[in-house]
Amino acid sequence: MIKMDAVLVGFGTVGQGVAEAIQMKDQLFVDRFGEGIRIVAAFDSNTYAASKKGLNPTELVRTKVGKGNIGKKRPETIPEMLSRLDYDVLVEMTPTNIVDAKPGIDHIKAALNAGRDVVTSNKGPLALKFREISKLAAKNKCNLRFEASVGGATPVINLASELLRCERISSIRGIMNGTCNYILSRMESEGLPWEPALREAQQLGYAETDPSYDIDGIDTACKVAILANAIMGNDVTVHDVERTGIRGVNLEAVTLAAQDKKVIRLIGEITEKGVEVAPRLIPRGHPLSISGTLNTFHIQTDLAGEIIVAGRGAGRHETASAVMSDLWVIMRTKEPNSHSS
């Protein structure tokens, strides 16, 4: 039997979705590994709950929704508690911070320094300190997995780094932000000017009240940096990515593109020339002309040729699906005689 005791840090939409997924998929893990994933501690921004026997995921979510917290005040900082708790894997899901990657990077370092595996959806530490935390994981012989940080339910990292391991990948291009894609799609299909399309995206919950993280291309640039490092072997940060958002895309440009049977899409690019995020003219019918809130990735390889993968890039259970796939792989690597890496 393979045991996995997990600590969840960050219990917002993603954290709650992961707790629900752990409950939902318990029997699947029991059937495969002999035991399911047990949540032995969970933290939100101010409180925590812990039990060596395991916490009930459904009760955790119910308590958070009902009371706005998950338990009692912490006696010390989360990194201090992570260095003392007994667990196998940290699931780090605090909000992305691209200024200094805190508090997520502190949580990840504390777990790795304690010899614990890490699964994270947090883009900040990966987009700013990828090489540092990768070396720390290797030094302490820990798994560091982060499928949920880029594609949500679109498995681009695991696809490229595992299933395409024998390929030489020369480029990755993609639509990596559903908010921008929705706005540009509405401008194209309904003839909406930029501002009304943005307001509609905000009303539907696709865009935040302050949408700059999405529409200025920051979110896409973070994902480009992560992919460049994880798949292409680069050593870049989000600040190395040339970035142009969609604020400058007006209805006239969208109309002119349509007359030429093209669409405008915000594309993240990792090529041998560099890393960039910018609006691009895409021929109608091309895989990167996809509409709506979906993400799509176009991977160019030497043997398989072009690989296209598309799916939902955000959402409670969509992101949880990526976290669960990483937890599954970690459990698989713990099996006796496992040759997984």
Task: Please give a quick description of this structure.
With 341 residues, this protein is of the alpha/beta class. Helix content is 40%, strand content 21%.
Secondary-structure arrangement, i.e. CATH architecture of the largest domain: 3-Layer(aba) Sandwich
Q: Please give the number of β-strands.
A: 13
Number of domains: 2
Rg: 20 Å
Biggest sheet statistics: 7 strands, mixed
Query: SSE order, as H and E?
Result: EHHEEHEHEHEHEHEHHHHEHEEEEH
Given as residue ranges, the uncertain stretches (5+ residues, pLDDT < 50) are none
What do we call the CATH homologous superfamily of the largest domain?
Answer: NAD(P)-binding Rossmann-like Domain
Can you describe this structure?
The chain is 40% helix and 21% strand. By secondary structure, it is of the alpha/beta class. It has two domains: 4-153 and 317-333, Rossmann fold; 160-312, Dihydrodipicolinate Reductase, domain 2 (2-Layer Sandwich). The chain has a seven-stranded mixed beta sheet with strand order 4-3-2-1-5-6-7, sandwiched between helices. Strands 9-11-10-8-12-13 form a six-stranded mixed beta sheet. A hairpin with a 4-residue loop joins strand 12 (294-301) and strand 13 (306-312). The longest helix has 18 residues, at 316-333. It is globular. The model has no long low-confidence stretch (mean pLDDT 94).
Which tags fit this structure?
341 residues, alpha/beta, Rossmann fold, Dihydrodipicolinate Reductase, domain 2, 2 domains, seven-stranded mixed beta sheet, six-stranded mixed beta sheet, 13 helices, 13 strands, 40% helix, globular
